[in-house]
Fold this protein.
Amino acid sequence: MNIYELIKKKRDGTSLSKQEITFLIDHYTQGAIPDYQMAAFLMAVYFKGMTSRECVDFTLAIVDSGDCIDLTAVNGFKVDKHSTGGVGDTTTLVLAPLVASCGAVVAKMTGRELGHTGGTVDKLESIPGMQLDFSQNRFIDIVNQIKVCLISQTARLAPADKMIYALRNVTATVDSIPLIASSIMSKKLAAGADGIVLDVKTGNGAFTPRYEDALELSKIMVAIGDGAGKQVEAVITSMEQPLGNAIGNALEVREAIETLAGNGPADFVELVTALGAGMLRVAGVAESYSKAVELIKTNIANHKGLETLRALIDAQGGDARVIDQPDLLPQAEQSVLVKSEAAGYVQQIMAMEVGLASKTLGAGRMQKEDEINPAVGIILKKKIGDQVHAGETIAVLHTDGNRAKIDSARAKVLAAYRIGPEKTVPPPLLRARVSKKGVQPVKI
Ligand code: URA
Ligand code: CA
């Protein structure tokens, strides 16, 4: 077996055997296959694709390149979730405690920002004292006590994915559906959960803007999960505008707290309900999807999810008083109103532009070494379908007072909003549910 033959086979559209795929990943990870040959192989995959069986083998070979988190010492069915990347997407902060309060177990690894999207680790670190790095034993102890713990992703998780992703990033092979699917699933499978719910985004802020591509990505990821013996379900959701109203680390924590207290923005609550219900069903906590939806709504209304968030913050060393006194979260020095020049109705809010505006204010890193300012970010005052008068505030920037950053973020926010004469109905947020049983509508 040699790499030249494998590249040629894939180039000619032949599928590779499990042995060939394992050879490829093992030798690449050990440095025995140079980047230029791996890059040629990835480009061949970009054009010729991979079968479902090849995707399973490719993913499992990537999982085997590093550590797998062993969660057998955790009691109960462990359920995880993953989003393919949204703007202002605070779902993990809400879902982890909410689903745990309903009886599922959430032992979750979580990451930092990627591109224009924020990271859950960065958001949680805005809570004073909050720890996200634990020994495996401490992690398991916390989960066994309160059914939930969030931990920062280790470097030893699927290292082959890190190497391949870096190569894809510079060879125009990121947007290959089989490669995205195996990249995401390798990290999820290595993280040790028994079941996974995937939030697959479609629309202007997503890796797969076209619905058909999001559907294909969902189907492949469900098939990979099945091939690995896990329960996996995907929910396709629209990213035509940022989720909820808050973008920025402490601002999103505050929004998560408000949501668990029953005062969340409508679109965000809808998403949390659909994904949470999926997690409960995958975990076998509820026997039907509609029962699971009911349970999620109940535990928002009775604040059980909020109380579990309090316990989670407390167990991880954070200041749990933020639940009742969110002003204890970092506060920005200055608020700046962004006013619309146009009048009419909001037609669209480019999520990626808003994500980048928030990053400009300091909510994300421009360079790897940059420190995040947890206090800064953006609160949207208008969403798709809302009426806007000329001179009316459409968004509020929470800033450190730096003029250049404010001007740049204001321009980005104004450019992100498309305001026109007709009243627009927001596109449906929940598009479809994809499982082994097929594609179904999402009813909540
Ligand atoms: N997220 C990932 O982890 N990998 C991809 O390839 C795309 C999104
Ligand atoms: Ca939000």
